[in-house]
Structures are given as structure tokens and as C-alpha cells.
Amino acid sequence: QVQLVESGGGSVQPGGSLRLSCAASGLTYSSYCFGWFRQAPGQEREAVATINTNTYITYANSVKGRFTVSRDKAENTLYLQMNSLRSEDTAMYYCAAKRYQYCTVTESAAAFSDWGQGTQVTVSS
């Protein structure tokens, strides 16, 4: 029974930064894929970044060079550092997990079995 609890969302001006956290528990198996997703009103949920338990990382082209995903193994916490934020980054952000290490941002949200509650990120002037 995996549980994911997100925090760190909020409002920021364009060009600003936010750091999202996702505390994970109930990780029974050795190999997992973790993902950060976002969904704006009227839009499909899209993958932003993924990281597996071997620290293999992928990013969506729209955030590459601006966002950094990382994982603190000892604390079972996933992070998303977001820099140079733009208005189009405004969305509800979710962390997610699935068994097995292979995962990339090309996979659909349906492939991920466990989800956090979401945290709102708003970028506006």
C-alpha cells in the first residue's frame, strides 16, 4: 500500500522558483518508477519528469533545463526543483509511482498505479 504526500506548491511570479516534495511510504518492492505529472484545467495530464530507483532520469522537453527531479533514498522523498517558471507551468502537480524501474515521460499517466493528492502551482504576475 503505497502512500504519496505532496507539498511545496504555491504562487510565484514568472521567472521564480518552487520546490515540490513528495514523501513516500509503503514502498515494499526494490524497484519503482516515480513520476511528476501536471494537469491544467481542460488539459490532459502530462508527464514532466521521471526517476527510477537507479536514478535514471527523463524530462519533458518543455521543462528540460529548468526543472530538476531528485530523490532522497534515506528519507524516501521525491523532489522537483522548478526554476525559471512560466505562466504555462501553471497546473496541479502530482507525484506518482509504479512497480518496476523502467519509466519515461513518454508513458501515459495510466501506467502509474499510485498517486499523491496534488499540489497547485500558479505562475502569474
What does the model show?
The protein has 125 residues and is mostly beta strands. The chain contains no helices and 11 strands. Strands 2, 4, 5, 6, 9, 10 and 11 form a 7-stranded mixed sheet that branches. It has a 4-stranded antiparallel sheet with strand order 1-3-8-7, with no helix packed on it. A hairpin with a 4-residue loop joins strand 7 (67-72) and strand 8 (77-82).
Question: What is the fold's blueprint, element by element?
Answer:
Layout: E1 3-7, E2 10-12, E3 18-25, E4 32-39, E5 46-52, E6 57-59, E7 67-72, E8 77-82, E9 91-99, E10 114-115, E11 119-123
Parallel strand pairs: 2-11
Antiparallel strand pairs: 1-3, 3-8, 4-5, 4-9, 5-6, 7-8, 9-10, 9-11
In short:
This protein is mainly β. It has no helices and eleven strands. It has strands spanning 3-7, 10-12, 18-25, 32-39, 46-52, 57-59, 67-72, 77-82, 91-99, 114-115, 119-123.
Tell me which oligomeric state these chains represent. single chain
Terminal-residue CA separation: 40 Å
- Summarize model confidence as the mean pLDDT: 95
Structure summary, number of beta strands: 11
Order of helices and strands: EEEEEEEEEEE
Number of helices: 0
Beta-strand percent range: over 45%
- Which class do the helix and strand fractions yield? mainly beta
Radius of gyration computed on alpha carbons: 13 Å
Query: In which range does the helix fraction lie?
Result: under 10%
Uncertain residue segments: none
